[in-house]
Amino acid sequence: MAKEAMSQEEKNMNDEHKRLASVVKNVHANLRKKLRANNGDYETVWKQHCKDQSALCQYAQCMQKLATDHWTKNSHTRIDWCREVILEYFNGSGLEKALEKDAKRQRHKLQKEEQQIVSDSCCVQNEGADPTQRLRVQLMQDRPDACPQRDADVRDDTLVQLPLEGKVRLLDVGSCYNPFCQFDEFLPIAIDISPANELVYQCDFLSLEITEPLHLAPDAGDTFLRKLSSPIERLPHGLFHVVVFSLLLEYLPAPQQRWLCCVKAHQLLQCHGLLLIVTPDSHSQHRNAPMMRSWRTAIESMGFHRWRYVKHEHLHCMAFRKLHQRPSVPCGVSPDMMYIPQDFSDKCLDDELNESSHKEVIQDECEDRDDFFQTSALELPCFIPDDGSGTVV
Ligand SMILES: C[S@@+](CC[C@H](N)C(=O)[O-])C[C@H]1O[C@@H](n2cnc3c(N)ncnc32)[C@H](O)[C@@H]1O
């Protein structure tokens, strides 16, 4: 009897889980549908979406319930992964090792440049050297960073900027219910277009204004953050040690919006701060590897370096480090690179297929169309299939 009652309870939980997941998934799908109906005008679609208070509130309640009542069976969640990575980086040896690697790379680069200068100088001494080459050699010799000792400056500067003691200032974007408030090591600022509780500030990250950095005492950042009030419309440049996008980017219907979020994260982070991205994907690591490579190239072009990547059963988890120096942007990088398979899933029969730069991906999704619809039910982690075999991540 007790066993039967338990299984009925489990069945009810399972039904509720499916209902909540479908509310959440429908909001994402409707946004994408509206974007297509508005010919890609994501600003108009987003403005309308932010005004739909009843849909936003329903989403927030369902999402909070899913995360706090249903996704608790697994002892290791996406939030735990974020915490471990942050602690390893700031309190363990992560940052130190990353800086050592940076210095090594920099030394190697400078050595190569010096060798180049020597070989160019030899050519210039030769009467046949053209004026452009002469100018280049002169410029290289005058460059202040063409000097290996400057590695040391880069390192010291970093250690001054980062608080290796004290709380890690963490901005949780699209937080919903502020899951990071349980950890003492952090000073979490949780923001959302639709807060599920009073621990979260109302803020649309896409329209957040980034203001001048605070030029105050080191602890002024904490004081500033403790005095924030809802709604948040602006935040200073370089204030955070960590920015978290946990299940945020796939909510946004346009790749341009996902790109903009990453650019803003870069502005809000201190040098060597971390951007953590958790995004759902129930396929094998191999299946969407081109997408992850594309995200990596796009995000690194903004001045990040990927520091950690893990594929869990239903999630990709990534940590990007904000670099001291911006790299040169490789050719062909554009916001389109922040695509997700769902961007294309309803366009398969369109003529656009022939024109898109992501042709293989679209083709792949078309071929597996039935498969895509079947597994899209697993778009969010720990969806429990009818046979009850789902795992929680
Ligand atoms: C799938 S939920 C993820 C909740 C939480 N981060 C987690 O991992 O459980 C996505 C959240 O992002 C929020 N969101 C989407 N776009 C946003 C934006 N531009 N600014 C702030 N929050 C946003 C949504 O309201 C929603 O609560």
Automatic annotation (TrEMBL):
<keyword id="KW-0489">Methyltransferase</keyword>
<feature type="binding site">
    <location>
        <position position="192"/>
    </location>
    <ligand>
        <name>S-adenosyl-L-methionine</name>
    </ligand>
</feature>
<dbReference type="GO" id="GO:0032259">
    <property type="term" value="P:methylation"/>
</dbReference>
<feature type="binding site">
    <location>
        <position position="174"/>
    </location>
    <ligand>
        <name>S-adenosyl-L-methionine</name>
    </ligand>
</feature>
<keyword id="KW-0949">S-adenosyl-L-methionine</keyword>
<dbReference type="InterPro" id="IPR029063">
    <property type="entry name" value="SAM-dependent_MTases_sf"/>
</dbReference>
<comment type="similarity">
    <text>Belongs to the BMT2 family.</text>
</comment>
<dbReference type="GO" id="GO:0008168">
    <property type="term" value="F:methyltransferase activity"/>
</dbReference>
<keyword id="KW-0808">Transferase</keyword>
<protein>
    <recommendedName>
        <fullName>S-adenosylmethionine sensor upstream of mTORC1</fullName>
        <ecNumber>2.1.1.-</ecNumber>
    </recommendedName>
</protein>
<dbReference type="InterPro" id="IPR021867">
    <property type="entry name" value="Bmt2/SAMTOR"/>
</dbReference>
<comment type="function">
    <text>S-adenosyl-L-methionine-binding protein that acts as an inhibitor of mTORC1 signaling. Acts as a sensor of S-adenosyl-L-methionine to signal methionine sufficiency to mTORC1. Probably also acts as a S-adenosyl-L-methionine-dependent methyltransferase.</text>
</comment>
